């Protein structure tokens, strides 16, 4: 009887471990800070069948329209956050949804921030993978979410003419 219980326990624990690992590979997040280190937003990334769903909730941001992008390196060194590298572009496209040459996978819709400093973005990055596959977002050097000072024009290569980087967060698996 003890052997049966031990085997059943081992199977149960193996299943729990697999579920936990699968869950952690399916979700990631970031806390975005400004150059002074103040928190300005949170981002949640969820692997879905259709791609990566990204939800950004900002507060204390300047009112207006801001470009938001996934960047190639998981580093956010102030004051300019240049350490985050360029936009995530594993398919070697041009910038912006309005560019006839296609768009980077890291190109996202703009986020509108109200006069109260809050903004919300809920976007899907089609066919993207957090991990695994040929072009994972979370590769050896990680990735970051960046909020820019101005709106992305959706066409100017390579950055959408979206101004400086005002908040940055390193993406981590949850």
Report the strand count.
Answer: 10
What summary fits the major beta sheet?
A: 5 strands, antiparallel
Count of all domains: 1
* H and E string: HEEEEEEEEEE
The largest sheet has its strands arranged as: 7-3-2-1-10
- Content of β-strand: 25-35%
Descriptive account of the structure:
The chain has 174 residues and is an alpha+beta fold. The protein has a single domain (27-173), classed as Superoxide dismutase, copper/zinc binding domain (Immunoglobulin-like, Sandwich), CATH 2.60.40. It contains one helix and ten strands. The protein has one helix at 2-26; strands at 27-33, 39-48, 51-58, 64-66, 68-71, 111-113, 119-126, 144-148, 165-170, 172-173. A five-stranded antiparallel beta sheet has the order 7-3-2-1-10. A three-stranded antiparallel beta sheet has the order 5-8-9, with no helix packed on it. The chain has a two-stranded antiparallel sheet with strand order 4-6. Strand 1 (27-33) and strand 2 (39-48) form a beta hairpin. The radius of gyration is 19 Å and the shape is globular. Residues 1-24 have low confidence and may be disordered.
